[in-house]
């Protein structure tokens, strides 16, 4: 793997023909991209110069070299694959979580740090086996020790310790209960005082996890939502690559170095809110400086405040789309008559009405269930109450405002209404029709399920649920003959719903309770938009309903 496989006897042989799987280092033509292979070839030539009359590398023909020759000439084969995420989770639950993928790409890696065979954008460089691994690494691998390794000088990520998950004994803990550091300068394992699970890709400064067992560490790492951990991992990957280009250790670099990285992002047009995500991701893995974490450092706080003044956050003041126009479209075919409408349009209409009526995040809507303990129709037909799945963990844990039930009143027409338009927009009516239409195909208790294809009846993903809401808005604009405004997102329903509620006199406390916001500042700074006419769903959404 590291160089040509040559067997040379100490007999008086003066002409030797080497038949390695790769002759690029032995011959001048073609060259070689592997520094390790070139170094090995140089050692071979130096040894052969005083002993042999000639040394020549020849091509190794036949099936014995077919695979190696194919990879060296054409690169990795097409159709790259990787393990299913569920399989990876099962492996990691038994052997511990890996932090470095040795042979991967940006599309196939399961770790924030990886080596690649062809992509120069990989954080740790090319070809893991071409790196100067110490001789005793095989012994560490056999014992199942989690090892830290410093890539060599001049390579991306130089000076950055990495954790490689090997098949462990006793669930990933070495016999000594310590980390074995593979240091390039010494070339052998040195037991350190760091625990076996403290390494580069571990979230949180190393001192905080000192002495923690693997199960405790896993619990601590789950303090953040999976989506947050994914965002942090992606931001950290970019920071590691930036540090690698400059030969800086991303774990213990200075605060001015981090500020230089943030300034480069600001110069590229990143907003202050984006920079805050990078700071949080770096702070989760950096050892800290001056007795505090990166996010709490005074210079970092001043930098973020200065970035906000230089590039103020554009607060939305105009609704992203016209609610009145969209609701008019929901009262027309193909959304109505609801009893004879295609399930595709019934699904989209129900999703949009629930999103507007509740001001909930898409994750909250996704967690709704039709199981008897989570769905209760009022005996008198006055409405319905929905609870999220008991296993659902909301994005923001805000105490009493988390996992609040969603109570919807059923519209009862009166002579003063003048038409059936309010009844056509009743969320309870659409919900009951949707549940009845999907009852025969359900294989999941989740409220929203797939209505076609091989996944028919199975739980719908959050991304697809967001698409349903946007598709309903888009089709309503199409029915009116007007173009859809750019940048319409499912999340905009929270802004429009809460702004209409505020216009009707609903208190900010009730609005925050409905939207699961901790303070009214969140609404006033990020969600409040200018709406000028009465709420089209005002008959259905009263102050009491909005507060729940």
Please write out the topology.
Elements: E1 15-18, H1 35-48, E2 54-57, H2 66-74, H3 85-95, E3 100-101, E4 113-114, H4 137-143, E5 147-149, E6 162-164, E7 178-182, E8 189-195, H5 206-209, H6 214-221, H7 226-246, H8 255-267, H9 272-283, H10 298-310, H11 323-330, H12 343-358, H13 362-366, E9 375-377, E10 383-386, E11 406-409, H14 421-424, H15 427-438, H16 462-480, H17 492-503, H18 508-515, H19 520-527, H20 543-547
Parallel strand pairs: 1-2, 3-4, 5-7
Antiparallel strand pairs: 5-6, 7-8, 9-10, 10-11
How would you explain this protein's 3D organization?
Mean pLDDT is 74; it is low at 1-12, 25-30, 134-207 and 538-548. The strands form 4 sheets. The protein has a 4-stranded mixed β-sheet, covered by helices on one side. Strands 9-10-11 form a 3-stranded antiparallel β-sheet, with no helix packed on it. The protein has a two-stranded parallel sheet with strand order 1-2. It has 4 domains: 15-74, no CATH class; 92-219, no CATH class; 226-310, Tyrosine recombinase, N-terminal domain (DNA polymerase, domain 1, Orthogonal Bundle); 323-412 and 419-547, Intergrase catalytic core (hpI Integrase, Chain A). It has helices at 35-48, 66-74, 85-95, 137-143, 206-209, 214-221, 226-246, 255-267, 272-283, 298-310, 323-330, 343-358, 362-366, 421-424, 427-438, 462-480, 492-503, 508-515, 520-527, 543-547, and strands at residues 15-18, 54-57, 100-101, 113-114, 147-149, 162-164, 178-182, 189-195, 375-377, 383-386, 406-409. It is elongated. Helix content is 38%, strand content 7%. α9 packs antiparallel against α10, α12 (343-358) packs across α15 (427-438) and α12 crosses α17 (492-503). The protein is an alpha/beta fold and 548 residues long.
